[in-house]
Specification:
The chain is of the alpha+beta class. It contains 15 helices and 21 strands. The strands form five sheets. Strands 3, 5, 6, 17, 18, 19 and 20 form a seven-stranded antiparallel sheet that branches. Helix 1 crosses helix 5 and helix 6 crosses helix 7.
């Protein structure tokens, strides 16, 4: 039985219709860049093939009222996290290696120490760019008959991915509607219920705004990327948009490559990349206006101290970072939890009733001596434990919580938060299409869908916060899966059919 606010889903179709839709969907995806590189132990230097991204055959139902609320909240979150990032004392206390989480979480501590080193040398960021994504699930209140609520899962401040591919999957579902009308399987499936998604233009606009603020039109934007990245096409769409719509060139480099190519001019602190033979007009090097990190959010991106030194070099330049270290730290799970405390409202007065209503209950495992752990143990079946990590696959759920708490060293409690589980609607399904399954590869499953809203903010200590809400993402996963990261292999890309 589906939720009172949502229809039974997916609509009934025949096996023949399912096969026809799957063929149309997969060929559209391959024709329109809705693709990944295939799995490989080592990706070839020049790709020789691509596979379509995992996708949902139908758009998934979502309350129109809650979708509009999520878009409205994004602008408030843009401002809130810009202000958090500029509050050095707050970040030192919550995330620092002397007072905060960085004392017990080595990765957080490493990043904070880089930031502290910059400040000790008098190096401050005059401008920051955030390309953000706030993720939500629908929550079923305990009160019978109450409408579904919108609850935040997390707020992402670094490498907020799948903006480009989410736009393309929305177009895919519109294409299926235009070509087949989904075989008249549901009266909800009509164009006015499928919202447009222009995330590519929106995210590129944020990068272009930073480039313009840097005020050197001939400079390039640097994408810092992971070696062997399979989700390269999601990034390439932004690169093409920047060149074609804004006349801004992009260069892609890994941390390993930057260790050789990057230099910061001592007097001006201009960041330049030395790429002899690889630049137009015989240029030996290029100036960088904006550093866009699609890497650097996990300890795996820093296997040696030299990798941290490369991050420090980039941060020491006058190029605008997306994000700077302090903005990356602002996206920590511990910050998310501390913002729910009463004391945060006085410090960040933009926290209003709508923002507070989007939060589940949270606390630190280190709260009130042993009370945080006792509470987590008692409520384990309705909780998730989260560390200070991005990228999926890191959380601890339900039955796994008590043995995890038994093994967790006392000093590491501070690095973990407990969050009440969001009770998602029951009875919703979809056909999930993975690459390589042929037309029979659309597997019907009971699902849960997570909505992400994209936004950007350009800000600094002496500048007005410039910000926008710029698009959305829907990730749908089998109900049996706890995690939601597509790149980690748990979800498919999806889009919305809005219901009233």
């Amino acid at each position: 039985m589906a939720s009172l606010s949502l229809p039974q889903w997916p609509p009934e179709i025949t096996d023949e219709q399912r096969s026809a839709l799957t063929l149309l969907a997969t060929t559209y995806a391959l024709s329109h860049g809705l693709v990944y590189l295939p799995p490989a132990d080592v990706q070839p230097p020049v790709p020789t093939s691509a596979i379509h991204a995992p996708l949902a055959l139908f758009p998934s139902p979502f309350p129109r009222k809650q979708f509009e609320l999520a878009k409205r909240l994004q602008r408030k979150y843009n401002v809130l996290y810009a202000r958090v990032a500029m509050d050095e004392e707050f970040l030192d206390r919550v995330m620092g290696a002397e007072q905060g989480v960085g004392r017990v979480d080595e990765f957080t501590g490493q990043l904070w120490r880089l930031w502290k080193r910059l400040r000790d040398q008098g190096i401050k960021q005059t401008r920051h760019l955030g390309l953000f994504r706030s993720d939500y699930l629908l929550h079923t209140p305990s009160k019978e008959g109450a409408p579904l609520e919108l609850k935040q899962v997390e707020f992402n401040t670094i490498s907020s991915s799948f903006g480009a591919l989410s736009e393309n999957v929305a177009k895919l579902h519109r294409h299926l509607l235009a070509t087949t009308e989904y075989f008249n399987s549901s009266p909800l499936l009509k164009l006015e219920n499928l919202p447009p998604n222009n995330t590519i233009a929106g995210l590129a606009e944020g990068l272009a705004a930073a480039h313009k603020a840097y005020a050197s039109p001939s400079a390039w934007i640097l994408f810092v990327v992971q070696d062997g990245e399979r989700n390269v096409f999601d990034q390439r769409w932004l690169e093409y948009e920047l060149l074609e719509k804004h006349s801004i060139r992009v260069v892609r480099q890994t941390f390993e490559q930057l260790a050789v190519s990057a230099e910061v001019v001592p007097t001006s602190r201009i960041l330049r990349l030395r790429l002899p033979g690889l630049l137009p007009r015989g240029a030996e090097s290029v100036e960088i206006s904006t550093v866009y990190f699609r890497a650097g959010y996990t300890p795996k991106d820093y296997p040696t101290p030299a990798h941290y030194e490369t991050r420090y070099l980039l941060e020491s330049s006058v190029a605008i970072k997306c994000p700077s270290i302090q903005l990356q730290l602002a996206g920590g799970k511990k910050v998310q939890q501390v913002l729910t405390e009463r004391s945060a409202i006085g410090r960040f007065p933009t926290i209003d009733g709508e923002l507070r209503a989007s939060w589940m209950g949270m606390w630190g495992l280190d709260a009130h001596s042993d009370e945080g752990v006792r509470k987590a143990r008692a409520q384990a079946q309705s909780l998730v434990l989260k560390p200070q990590r991005e990228g999926g696959g890191n959380n601890v759920y339900k039955d796994d919580i008590p043995p995890f708490l038994d093994a967790l060293p006392l000093q590491e409690r501070e690095a973990w938060i407990a969050m009440e589980l969001i009770r998602t609607p029951e009875g919703l399904g979809n056909y999930l299409v993975r690459a390589g399954g042929g037309t029979a590869g659309a597997v019907k499953a009971e699902v849960v869908s997570e909505l992400g809203i994209f936004g950007w903010a350009l800000f600094g200590p002496n500048a007005v916060i410039e910000e926008k809400e710029v698009g959305w993402l829907l990730r749908t996963k089998g109900k049996e899966s706890n995690e939601g990261g597509i790149a980690a292999g748990f979800s498919v890309l999806d889009s919305l059919v809005l219901v009233d």
